[in-house]
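stage 2 :: seqdesign
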């Protein structure tokens, strides 16, 4: 009963920036965690950044200092600002939401960093 709609993604040159956003809709009591994961070809899905309702943030070491996660609890949205993008950031990015111990995922959006 939770839907996640993602916006953003696309093709960008190395060193460029992209902004991803995700909005949750449906019926749920509250959101425990909201954030982003990514999956590159031939690799497992990995954490990018998550943020709890209390504001605690986990960043992957590979994106620390370049990516910034933000969250609007009232609007049930989460945003990922990606700066200084590298070719290794190329992946499908998935919005993730945890509520009541259940995991929900967005459809994924492609981010390609290439010259």
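stage 2 :: out
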């Amino acid at each position: 009963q939770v839907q996640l709609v993602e916006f953003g993604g696309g093709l960008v040159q190395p060193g460029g920036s992209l902004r991803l956003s995700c909005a949750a809709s449906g019926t749920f009591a509250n959101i425990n965690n909201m954030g982003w994961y990514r999956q590159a070809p031939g690799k497992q899905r990995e954490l990018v950044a998550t943020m709890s309702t209390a504001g605690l943030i986990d960043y992957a070491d590979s994106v620390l200092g370049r990516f910034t996660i933000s969250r609007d609890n009232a609007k049930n949205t989460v945003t990922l600002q990606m700066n200084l993008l590298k070719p290794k950031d190329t992946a499908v990015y998935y919005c993730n939401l945890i509520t009541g111990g259940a995991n929900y995922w967005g459809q994924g959006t492609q981010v390609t960093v290439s010259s």
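stage 3 :: structure notes
- The longest strand covers residues 18-26.
- The chain has a mean pLDDT of 94.
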